[in-house]
Amino acid sequence: MRAARYYDRGDIRIEDITEPEVVPGTVGIDVAWCGICGTDLHEYAEGPIFIPPAGHPQPISKESAPITLGHEMSGVVYAVGAGLDDIAVGDHVVVEPYILHDDVDTGPDSHDYHLSEDMNFIGLGGCGGGLGEKITVKRRWVHKISSNIPLDQAALIEPLSVGYHAVERSGAASGATALITGAGPIGLLTAAVCKAKGITTIISEPSSLRRNKAVEAGVGDHIVDPVADDVVARVRDINGGRGADVGFECTSVQPALDTLLDALKPTGVLVVVSIWSHPGSVDMQKLVLKEIDMRGTIAYVNSHPATIELVEQGKVDLAPFITGRIGLDHLIDAGFDTLINRNETAVKILVSPSGAGL
């Protein structure tokens, strides 16, 4: 089968590799679509980060570069390993792409398995990836979805789960007001979850194309241009003189973090969602004098079932966020290059590894 293989920074190759074996307890999936994630872009431009460099195997997968990329995937089950009777060939599925030690509690009451030692992600730390035509995944990490959800949209359930977990971390509930800095994929999908939960959304984004996408997708109650507008003043005007109840930092850009500290109300909650590849700074006096609660958030934990339910119930429409569909042969020129050098022109670019979806 064909797959996109990460060798090193700036070195991704489309290669023929052996199809994965479906062993007991695993599910074989024909990958329909896989999204290109911001993490993939960081690996390509600045990595390896999550990807174990050649000669330095990941402690759980025992793999190192080259590895198959891709962790935002949807597909159709083509084989079921021995010992499984709750999933069938033909089921539509998405993957919660974790690589964890076998002794980690991943039961329904766990709230921290995503923080366990040596945690990594399928498609970054090994174990195959969604940028290959097929993948085998342990049953625990395979989630069935309704066949009514188009498989291209289903590939966005993984990043939508990131937004879902971030909103959970914030503690915000219906009636709250949220300021979201950045209308990239994660910012927009976090806003979508907020809207589904009855939270008023204010989105700050300098790109006119991305501001338009926020309007088109219907996830921003108020859209602000931080270059032309005073974001803090706009937030207070919108929220009756108060600052925002909660803020989501989705850019890894220092001015956005600074804006959130100013725009939040006293006792507000600031959630850092983006992955920072460089140190940031915090004005500790503002944090202290406003009693701001600053929280990090990474990925998701038992978030997929509730996220899938939002989509199946029609509370989140994922279609507007898809801005491109490509095959493996155009992964770099039409995918990575666009998202790195012209990122204001695209939100989510999906890849059909087999080309069948094109």
Automatic annotation (TrEMBL):
Entry keyword annotation includes Secreted: no
Keywords carried by this UniProt record: Metal-binding, Oxidoreductase, Zinc
Protein name: Putative 2,3-butanediol dehydrogenase
CDD domains: butanediol_DH_like (cd08233)
Family: Belongs to the zinc-containing alcohol dehydrogenase family.
A Pfam family it matches: ADH_N
UniProt xrefs under InterPro entries: ADH-like_C, ADH-like_N, GroES-like_sf, NAD(P)-bd_dom_sf
Organism encoding this protein: Gordonia rhizosphera NBRC 16068
